[in-house]
Amino acid sequence: MMRARIYYPVLAGFLLVVGLHLVLQAAGVTYYMTQLTMSAYYGLVVIGLCLLMGYAGQLSLGHAGFFAIGGYTSAVLTTCNLSSHSGNALIARLHGIGVLVQWQDIYGDQMLSFCPWVAFGAALLLTAAIALVIGLPVIRLKGHYMAMATLGFGLIIYRIVLGTRVFGQADGLSNVPPFPLIGPLEVNGRAPWRVQNYYIAWIAVLVAMVLALNLIHSRVGRALRSIHENEEAAHSLGINTYRYKLATFVLSALFAAVGGVLMTHYNGSIGPSEAAVMKSVRYVAVVAVGGMANLWGVLLMGVLLNFLSLRGVFGTFDDAVFGTILIGVMLFAPGGLLRMPRLQAISSLLRRRSHG
Amino acid sequence: MSFAQIVQYTFSGITVGSIYAITAVCFNIIYNCTGIINFAQGEFLIIGAMTAISLSHVVPLPLAIVGAVAVTTVIGGLIEIVFIRRVSDASILRLIVITIGLSIVMREGMLHIWDEKVRSLPYFTGSAITTVSILGAHISPQVLWVLGVSAVIVTALTLFFRLTTTGRAMRACADNRMAARLCGINDRWMVTLSFMLSAGIGALAGCVISPVTQTQYDMGAPLAIKGFTVAILGGLGNSMAAVVAGLFLGLLEAFVVSQFAAAYKEVVAIAVLLLILIFRPSGLFARRDVTALRTA
Lengths: 356, 296
Description:
The complex is a heterodimer of chains A (about 350) and B (about 300). Chain A has 15 helices and four strands. Chain A has helices at about 1-5, 10-25, 30-55, 65-80, 90-95, 115-140, 145-165, 195-215, 220-230, 230-235, 240-265, 275-290, 295-310, 320-330, 340-355; strands spanning about 100-105, 110-115, 180, 185.
C-alpha cells in the first residue's frame, strides 16, 4: 500500500496535463502547448539534475552539455546523407535491415540517414560513455572543484560544438526529421501534431517521474540521501558512496540526453545555445527554486519558469531573472520556494483545519 | 617558427598570463579569508574596465582608472555586506550558487548599462600602432604596462600581507578565524576587506588589459575560469605559485594559438584544468604532506 502511494501524484499529474489541455482548448490558446511541450523536455533534464543535486548532493554545472550531446548526436546521425554511398555493400545491408532510412528533406532532396531509433540509441550510449569517463574522476572531487570541473566540461562541449563543422558551428543543425514512435505517433513540431506531441512529451515526463520516484524510494534512494546527509557516516555503514554517486551522475546525464534528443526532433533543429553554460546554470536555478530534494517541486518550477521564458515574458531580462532567482532562493529560502517558512505555516494551518 | 616569432608569442603569452595570475591572486585573497571561490571575480575586471571607459570620456585617463577602481571596490564591499555576510555559515553548495547568481546578475546589468558593443580604453602610451622593438619582435608599449602593473600589484600585495597590521590580521583570519577573533581582530571586516581588495585589484587588471584584448560585457566568465585554473594549478591559496602558473597557462595558450585554430584555445585551458583536477587537485607546487591534508 505504501509503495503505491508515491505514484498517486503521477496520476494526479496526468489528470492535470489533460485538464490543462482542455483549459487551453477552451481559452483558444492551443499554441501555448508548443512551449509546454518544450518545457516538458527541459523538465526531463531537471528531473535528472534533481536526482544528482538534491539526492546525491553533487552540483553539476555541465548538464546542458549532456543535453547537447544527446541532441547533436541524434541530429548528426539523422541528417547525414549517405545516399551517394548507396552502392557500398555495408550501407546497402544497413539499409536492408532498417538501420538506415530513406526520406525526403524539405528541399525535396533524397536523403539516406540513420533511423531515429538507431540515432536515439547511439545518443544514449555516447552520453552514458562520456558521462562515465567524465564522472569517474569528477565524482571524487568536492565542492568548488566539482563545480568548476563540470563547468569546464560544459564549456568544452560548447566550444567543440561552436568550432566544428560537422555540428554546424554557430548555425547549429537544422532539417532534423520527425521521430516516428509507434503507429501514427511521431515527435514532430509542426502545428497538426501539436496536441499529440503535448501528450507524448508529458507522458515521457511522467514515465521519467515514475522512474525517479521508484529510485528515490528504494534502497538506492535511501543510500543517496544518507550520502547527502553525511558521507562519512554513509561510508561507514558499508555504502559504496563513490559508485552510487557515479551511477546517479550517469543516470542524470541520460535524462538530459533523452530530453535533448526529443527536443531536437521536436524543434527540427539544435543550436549551440543549447550547450551554453547559461543553460546549465538555468537548470541548477530551477532545481534550487524547486527545493533541491523535491522532485515534484523541481518539475513544477522547471516547467513554469521555462514556459514563461519560452513565451518571452522576461524579455531582455531573461538571464537576469534566472540569476536573481538563484541569489534570492539561496539567500532567503534554501529549501526552495515551496518550502518557505511562511508557506509551510500556511500548509500546516490547512492540515490542522482539515484534521479538526 | 623564427626566433622573432617565438619572442612575439612569448610576450603575448605572458601578457594574458599575468592577467590570469592577477585573477588567480584575487581568487586566493577571498578563498584564504572565507573558503569561498567567488565565481563573480571575472565580472569585477569587466566592471572596472567598463567604468573606466565611460569615465575616460569626461576625465583624464589616470583619473578614470582611479575612479573605476574605487567604484568596483565599493561594489565588491557591498556584495560581501549584502549577500555573503548573511549566509556566512551556509554550505559550500549554497555559496557557490550565490556567487554564480551574482555573476549572472552583474553581467546582465552590464549588458543593460553598456550594451553588447566591444569597447576598449585608449592605449596608456602611444597608440595601437606604436611598437617597441625587443629582440627583433615588435611589442606594444601596453604589454609593458600590463607586465609592470601586474608586478607592482603582486609586490604591493606581498608587502601588504607581510608588513602592515591589517595585512597580518587578514592572514591571521585565514589561518584560524576563531583564534583571530579572540585576539581582537574584527574578522567580519577582514572578509569585507578581502572582497574589496580583490574587486579593486580585478578592476585595475581589467583596465590595463582593456586596450590589448578589448572589453565586452560577457568576457568575465572565461577570465574567471582561467583565473581559477591558474589558482588550482598553483594550489588554491598559494599566490606566489599562482603567478608562475598564470604565466605558464598564458604561454601555453599563446603557443596553442600559433599552431591550432583559435576556436580551440579555450578547450586547451579547460582541458588543463580538468587534468589538474583529476591528477593533482592540490596543485603542481604543493608539498606532499599538504596534499595529504587537503585531500583527506
